[in-house]
Amino acid sequence: MSITIDQISKNFGGFQALNNVSLDIPEGQLTALLGPSGSGKTTLLRIIAGLESSDSGRILFGGDDVSQLHVRDRNIGFVFQHYALFRHLTVAENIAFGLESLPRKQRPSRPDIRQRVARLLEMIQLPELAKRYPAQLSGGQKQRVALARALATQPRILLLDEPFGALDAKVRKDLRRWLRALHDEYHFTSIFVTHDQEEALELSDQVVVMSQGKVEQVNSPTGLYARPESRFVFDFLGHVNVLAGVVKGQKLVQGDAWVSLPAVRNDQEAQLYLRPHEVQLARTPCAQAKLPLRIEAISLIGSEVRIELAPEGWQSDEIWEIGMSHAEFARQNPARGELWYAVPGVGHLFVADSAQPRTIDWQYTEAANASSM
Ligand SMILES: Nc1ncnc2c1ncn2[C@@H]1O[C@H](COP(=O)(O)OP(=O)(O)OP(=O)(O)O)[C@@H](O)[C@H]1O
């Protein structure tokens, strides 16, 4: 069941929590609402659910306007951050609760309910815990039970509000993978709220980045990371290295640092954004840039080596980060305290007050220059 959010606005007193939000949520996909605290994610989720009314705009499920439908009639499953399991009911009874509470005409027979609960227990991989009470479960197990309970009535749509927010990092990661696998098997249309970019990028088919009650950008995780359309999305999604300077003679210049630019008007302020994986390190300046940096720290993080560097002879508000493979690290052998030069591969240039960046690919530019010589 697809969801259409059509020009939704919501004020609380004088405060605008949602400002004319329009959005398409494709059927069968997992969509993340990602944004900083207070950006309006939960408010939007509650309006989709029918737990909150909007001041203007419409919500459509599969093309039908449900804006006036009561939450009970929207056929939605919910999972919240704090497992709202009933303490006095067993796991099986918790899962059966939604079915038992259906009006008599819609309620399945007792054997059917038992069978459906057994199937859901299999699905969440906890059949052996059917008779336990919530107090006897771990946080991760409680969230799986909450999910089974939400799915018991076979909702068309599943809404999750920071479902793994209260769990520790390892359990979060396991549950993410598990939810993704479950989703791939059952294909419900799901929206989940998170302020954790890693979670959004890892789990979802589509990410909606929100800021101050507005949608900043919608894209697949890879598209969003590769092509952020605004400074906000850049800053919010992973680390970014910035050279802020002035354009002079086909170069962006600041102090001892410069980067060559294709055709940009002189004497404008500009900022160049570079992701850690879009930069390499060399012992000498390269043809397209001189970006001297001193190595401050080297950390081995899983499959990657992360190098933190401080500008030398120029300035940056934040430390620079460059990621390299272990093989590359062994080959180059950089050490703390040494002076190195960043070699930009791809960068994103914001000129003056432009909201959208222009992407520059130096490998391509250098190759083109070389072949035209
Ligand atoms: N019932 C309410 N009354 C007044 N203000 C509210 C109400 N609900 C939300 N707000 C305000 O609306 C804004 C958006 O809140 P919302 O909970 O949607 O943000 P969020 O992005 O989900 O944030 P978080 O990640 O912290 O949960 C916030 O500034 C919040 O204080």
Automatic annotation (TrEMBL):
Q: Which UniProt keywords apply?
A: ATP-binding, Cell membrane, Membrane, Nucleotide-binding, Sulfate transport, Translocase, Transport
Has keyword Mitochondrion? no
SMART domains reported for this sequence:
AAA
Q: What is the name of the protein in this document?
A: TOBE-like domain-containing protein
User: Where does this protein come from, organism-wise?
Assistant: Marinobacter daepoensis
PROSITE patterns given for it? Answer: ABC_TRANSPORTER_1 (PS00211), ABC_TRANSPORTER_2 (PS50893)
Entry-linked Pfam families = ABC_tran, TOBE_3
Q: Which domain of life is it from?
A: Bacteria
ABC transporter domain location is: 3-237
Keyword DNA repair among record annotations: no
